[in-house]
Design brief:
The chain is an alpha/beta fold and 307 residues long. It has a domain of 213 residues: 3-Layer(aba) Sandwich (Rossmann fold), CATH 3.40.50.720. 41% of the residues lie in helices and 17% in strands. It contains 11 helices and 13 strands. The protein has a 7-stranded parallel beta sheet with strand order 3-2-1-4-5-6-11, sandwiched between helices. Strands 7-10 form a two-stranded parallel sheet. The protein is globular and about 55 Å long.
Length: 307
């Protein structure tokens, strides 16, 4: 298949593009600011917000599948610039979905667990979202725009960790690099999530496309933990000092944007559609560790072209 991956220098986009290329697909990845050095897949540098850029990209690449990973994902940056967040997270996905539908390609749009307010957890795809901040609100608007413009699209709500180009894109990297340097960090005991390794979600998304699924799915780990427990389990797997992680409350962190406390999601809809459950957290952390042992973070780092 010809697969177009937007945001190919991001945490999910890069790991997904590499996995799809390894599986034998012809992959074209779009990048904006971070130019990549790789023979694994083709790259196209552009700004998808420029008028006509989306249409030109689809016409030029003629993809069979499009996986839209590009987003404005920094929660506090979205609070600081809500207009830009709206353009990137709301308007762009809807425009892309409409044009992809016209050409007949299949689309996966990546959304977020943060569309829920986190007051109770255990959310299914049927539960009504209630976003707390600009990031979550614009991502929910993006979901709705995609669903309206392209009913055959897959909308995948996710929460990811993994190795990234910069080394600063995931909570897994945050804990690993700080603990490796002997630095004390805080782990929230009152924020719960279901993180999935980017390298584990990549084949799941490809399988969803192969099975021609459509609609909304929670694509996260089937195991949900507090951010403190996540850090402790990661520290133990890497043989790092878990005592450097201080249990803390998110209310004391002084964060600009509100965080949803309980983003535990149900994954039974996805499990039924694919005939197997989502990976658990131990599998993800083991994979994160194995990739480190194989030199994967350094491999990604060599792909970055510093201008």
């Amino acid at each position: 298949m010809r697969i177009l991956v937007t945001g190919a220098s991001g945490l999910l986009g890069l790991n997904l593009a590499l996995r799809a290329a390894r599986d034998g697909h012809l992959v074209i990845g779009t990048v904006k600011d971070h130019v990549l050095r790789t023979d694994a897949f083709q790259t196209v540098q552009n700004d998808l917000l420029v008028p006509g850029a989306v249409e030109g990209l689809i016409d030029q690449t003629q993809p069979d599948w499009v996986i839209h990973c590009a987003a404005m994902a920094n929660v506090d940056a979205c609070e600081a610039d809500p207009e830009q967040a709206r353009k990137v997270n709301s308007e762009l996905p809807a425009r892309l979905a409409a044009y992809v539908a016209r050409g007949g390609a299949r689309l996966v749009h990546i959304s977020t667990d943060a569309v829920f307010d986190g007051q109770r957890g255990g959310y299914s795809e049927e539960d009504a979202p209630n976003p707390l901040g600009v990031y979550a609100r614009t991502k929910l608007e993006g979901e709705r725009g995609v669903a309206e413009a392209n009913p055959q699209a897959i909308i995948a709500r996710a929460n990811l960790f993994g190795w990234s180009l910069s080394g600063r894109r995931s909570l897994g990297e945050f804990f690993f690099y700080n603990l490796s340097a002997g630095k004390r960090v805080k782990g929230f005991t009152d924020v719960f999530f279901c993180p999935i390794l980017a390298n584990d979600i990549a084949p799941i998304l490809l399988r969803m496309l192969e099975k021609r699924l459509n609609g909304l799915y929670h694509v996260v780990s089937r195991e949900c933990v507090s951010k403190y427990e996540f850090g402790v389990r990661l520290a133990r797997r890497f043989g790092l000092d878990e005592g450097l992680i201080t249990p803390a409350s998110v209310a004391e962190a002084g964060l600009k944007a509100a965080r949803s406390p309980n983003l535990t999601l149900r994954t039974d809809k996805l499990a039924a559609a694919l005939g197997k459950p989502s990976p658990d957290l131990s599998t993800g952390i083991d994979g994160f560790y194995t990739l480190y042992q194989q030199g994967y973070p350094q491999f990604l780092k060599r792909m970055e072209i510093r201008e």
